[in-house]
Design goal:
single chain; alpha/beta; 7-stranded parallel sheet; 16 helices; 7 strands
């Protein structure tokens, strides 16, 4: 979810669900320790509960980053052992770390020693020829002994040679049964499933695992998360907002962003899927895309997009 789950998108999702755990983009330890920490790690309290997802393979750097996450008020810290991008392969971390379970365990142990936050691991079924269920089970067993609090399993293997990162999200077949089997055979571990899951499939997966992570399905059709607080988390006291409620709730946020000097399109680009599958969705996307790119564009871009749909604006 690189270039997707930034602070603007997370604030937007909080108009739809209060209980869903949100994640940052994967941020490397080098960027955290040596980069613009305020820009990379800043968030609004309304985004919580919020997990910081880390990329790295140095236990000391991961431990230092975990301490920073705790100091900044994050709720969890996650080690990404599933990303197959070229940049990750060159850095010797991401999914290739599945071939070094003892090293991942050392990383998790260092993080656990540095913070009281839950430390989780997001990984895949496997990669290249290291893709049997038994290979994944051996990896999980080693890392679990280091104290990982939860395993989030992308139910596809990755091909590090021959497939692009985008193809690695779609081409390798989904193997949900392997993730369900992991939970059956390791019932004391917290196991969550990820990969190709839509809103309608959540309840069925929750019969077999402890949690479900949605990725691009939530980005492309964010309104699918409306109602999960009541239906999944059991909080019937939270009303389900309409799409128009959500869009109008974004207006004051847009005004604050523009007042800080940020381009409006950094926010409106995340709203393109709000009317996914609904009449007028194409016009909504066009208005936000074209008007949001205009120099000096402000929150009025969203007002006009709503008016074009024939929706009321304000009281």
């Amino acid at each position: 979810m690189m270039d997707r789950t930034d602070r603007h998108f997370r604030w937007f999702l909080r108009r739809l669900t209060r209980h869903t755990l949100l994640y940052t983009e994967m941020i490397t330890t080098g960027a955290i320790l040596h980069g613009d920490r305020g820009r990379l790690l800043g968030y609004d309290d309304e985004e919580r509960p919020l997990a910081l997802q880390l990329g790295g393979d140095d236990p000391a750097a991961l431990a230092a980053s975990a301490r920073i996450a705790e100091d900044l008020g994050y709720d969890e810290v996650d080690l990404n052992v599933g990303c197959p991008s070229d940049r990750v392969r060159e850095g010797s971390f991401g999914v290739c770390l599945m071939g070094r379970p003892k090293h991942v365990a050392d990383c998790v142990g260092a993080m656990r020693a540095a913070t009281g936050l839950p430390v989780t691991v997001k990984h895949r079924i496997g990669y290249d020829d290291l893709d049997r269920y038994e290979d994944m089970l051996a990896f999980v067993d080693v890392v679990a002994r280091a104290g990982a609090d939860r395993f989030i399993v992308h139910a596809r293997k990755a091909w590090l040679g021959g497939l692009s990162p985008k193809e690695n999200r779609t081409v390798p077949p989904l193997r949900y049964d392997d993730v369900h089997r992991l939970k059956r055979e390791r019932p004391d571990l917290r196991v969550e499933v990820n990969g190709g899951i839509t809103r309608d499939a959540i309840a069925e997966h929750l019969k077999r695992v402890d949690g479900v992570m949605l990725g691009r399905a939530a980005y492309d059709d964010p309104y699918s998360l409306a109602g999960v607080d009541a239906e999944v988390f059991g909080d019937a006291g939270l009303p389900t907002p309409t799409r128009e409620d959500v869009a109008e709730a974004m207006l004051p946020y847009l005004e604050r962003v523009v007042a800080r000097g940020e381009p409006v399109h950094r926010v409106t680009r995340h709203l393109l899927g709000l009317y996914s599958g609904r009449p007028g969705a194409r016009a909504w996307r066009r208005r936000l895309t074209e008007d949001g790119a205009e120099p000096g564009a402000g929150a009025g871009v969203l007002v006009e997009a709503l008016r074009e749909r024939g929706e009321r604006v304000g009281g």
